[in-house]
Amino acid sequence: RAPPPRTRFLPGHTARHHRACLLELLAEALREAGLRPCDVDCVAFTKGPGMGAPLAVVAAVARTVAQLWDKPLLGVNHCVGHIEMGRLVTGARDPIVLYVSGGNTQVIAYSQRRYRIFGETIDIAVGNCLDRFARVLKISNDPSPGYNIEQMAKKGQKLVELPYTVKGMDVSFSGILSHIEEVSHKMLASGECTPEDLCFSLQETVFAMLVEITERAMAHCGSQEVLIVGGVGCNLRLQEMMGIMCAERGAKLFATDERFCIDNGAMIAQAGWEMFRSGQVTALEDSWITQRYGMKVACEVLSAKAGKYQCCLLHAALVRPHQGSGV
Amino acid sequence: MAELGVPLSGSRLVQQGAEARLYRGRFLGRAVVAKLRFPKRYRHPALEERLSRRRTAQEARSLLRCRRAGISAPVVYFVDYVSNCIYLEDIVGSMTVRDYIISIQQREKDASGLFTLAEKIGEVLARMHDEDLIHGDLTTSNILLRPPAEKLDLVLIDFGLSFISGLPEDKGVDLYVLEKAFLSTHPNTETLFEALLKKYTAMSKKSSPVIKKLDEVRLRGRKRSMVG
């Protein structure tokens, strides 16, 4: 259930929710798939990043279940989950990935045997910017602030001038957010523009920034494919703008729908499966979770014997572990 | 200037970057590069016009500012604000610092010769920042070496994202952008970049708050909540 307007998801509530539902959900999933625990090959869970409390709840269940069923355990990086699912669903081979969500805004490419971040936000994520903008305008959180902004933007007509901030390959959103926080009430009160105009203007500006840094990465890497993942990737206007940019360069855009853009369990399973079949496993003592799990993943690509596809051995290096052992 | 879309008659398209198209040709008897910012159709037209004009103007202004301050940058011959095209001195035979570093690393096992280059870059950037000029898009592809490359005669280019600011935060971010570009394009060059920063610190009159801000921006990435 979405939080009321002007609020957001809280770790404690979320953790309690997970604790209450998880076992039932697990049982239902097995039932639906027609599988028993012994049929399962491995157990994949989100190692991070994310909110500490909910991550810990799920990790505890994953560890227990893995030991009960005697199955290998795999701790998966959330961001890599998005990328692997995106690649699987769309068939993109070697894309520049724009990963945009409430907590992440990164342009990632596979270069010199590694997933590398080419561009990112130097302050807040674009989804965070949109969510906080929604709070300023008291836009409903149901089903999600981003979705509501998108619908309102469709009715907007006037382009209000907003700060546009690209720094090299990076972007910055705190400036545009603070600008809007300062001027929106005045502008709405004076009738200079409508809330729909503001939604429209914000989208046009921030999405143009994202398309720009994606294009820069494409030019730098010589890539002809773009994949958008993460919750903000559901936005059709963003997809449309990216599509136009790609068409002008003769490149191809891959985007998924809300089943796979938004955080989902299947993507963790997918990434976990890729890890598992290239021989990687997470030992119990390494199965702790972390709120900050960076994207500096080293990746060795091995060609399957069939030669048809590559499987990735994902060995993620940690930027800064938040919680040590015992979680 | 003749054919539609092509700035100079008889010029040839050299490069299509993310931002602009580059044409080589002759203008008033000199070798020029025409940098044409073409319209991006994914942008709202009002936004597109604003950005293209602003970046053309900023680039021209910053290049002039560099030359007035004695910082090596191409001469601006002409600016066409209707088509958003800048006509610049063509540094014939130049090589980007990026290509130079790569070629040295491939040729020699010992890349200690690159330390002088790193220091020279630090020195140029110190002078630029002391003029309160922020480049905005520092990469090793945006610094050229006049021929012969070994003389390490540097030329700064690509000032489309530049602006004027005295704030240490802006200068710190400018260096941060270079650091990221530098280290991702040239792996294992951390000591080289350190030498660059050391020279910058020594040569710039206002360096210590800038370096402090650089450290803050570096940390910001690590502290960001990655929820969502």
TrEMBL record, chain A:
Annotated Gcp-like domain residues: 10-269
Molecular functions per Gene Ontology: metal ion binding; tRNA N(6)-L-threonylcarbamoyladenine synthase activity
Swiss-Prot/TrEMBL catalytic activity: L-threonylcarbamoyladenylate + adenosine(37) in tRNA = N(6)-L-threonylcarbamoyladenosine(37) in tRNA + AMP + H(+)
Keywords for the protein's UniProt record, in alphabetical order: Acyltransferase, Cytoplasm, Metal-binding, Transferase, tRNA processing
Gene Ontology cellular-component annotations: cytoplasm; EKC/KEOPS complex; nucleus
Transferase keyword on record: yes
Keyword Secreted: no
PROSITE patterns reported in the protein's UniProt record: GLYCOPROTEASE
Database matches in Pfam families: TsaD
Entry's transmembrane regions: none
EC class: transferase
Enzyme nomenclature, EC number: 2.3.1.234
Domain of life from the UniProt record: Eukaryota
Subcellular location: Cytoplasm; Nucleus
GO terms for biological process, alphabetical: tRNA modification; tRNA threonylcarbamoyladenosine metabolic process
The protein's name: N(6)-L-threonylcarbamoyladenine synthase
Protein species of origin: Crocodylus porosus (Saltwater crocodile)
Phylogenetic classification of the source organism: Eukaryota, Metazoa, Chordata, Craniata, Vertebrata
UniProtKB/TrEMBL annotation, chain B:
Catalytic reaction equation(s): L-threonyl-[protein] + ATP = O-phospho-L-threonyl-[protein] + ADP + H(+); L-seryl-[protein] + ATP = O-phospho-L-seryl-[protein] + ADP + H(+)
Subunit text: Component of the EKC/KEOPS complex composed of at least GON7, TP53RK, TPRKB, OSGEP and LAGE3; the whole complex dimerizes.
EC supergroup of this enzyme: transferase
A single GO cellular-component term on record: EKC/KEOPS complex
Protein name: non-specific serine/threonine protein kinase
This protein's UniProt keywords: ATP-binding, Hydrolase, Kinase, Nucleotide-binding, Nucleus, Phosphoprotein, Serine/threonine-protein kinase, Transferase, tRNA processing
GO MF, any single term: ATP binding
Primary location: nucleus
PANTHER family cross-referenced by the UniProt entry: EKC_KEOPS COMPLEX SUBUNIT TP53RK, NON-SPECIFIC SERINE/THREONINE PROTEIN KINASE
Species this protein is from: Crocodylus porosus
Biological role: Component of the EKC/KEOPS complex that is required for the formation of a threonylcarbamoyl group on adenosine at position 37 (t(6)A37) in tRNAs that read codons beginning with adenine. The complex is probably involved in the transfer of the threonylcarbamoyl moiety of threonylcarbamoyl-AMP (TC-AMP) to the N6 group of A37. TP53RK has ATPase activity in the context of the EKC/KEOPS complex and likely plays a supporting role to the catalytic subunit OSGEP. Atypical protein kinase that phosphorylates 'Ser-15' of p53/TP53 protein and may therefore participate in its activation.
Protein kinase domain ranges (all copies): 8-228
Domain of life: Eukaryota
Gene3D superfamilies, alphabetized: Phosphorylase Kinase, domain 1, Transferase(Phosphotransferase) domain 1
Similarity comment text for this entry: Belongs to the protein kinase superfamily. BUD32 family.
Pfam families for the chain: Kdo (PF06293)
Single GO biological process annotation from the record: tRNA threonylcarbamoyladenosine metabolic process
Keyword Phosphoprotein: yes
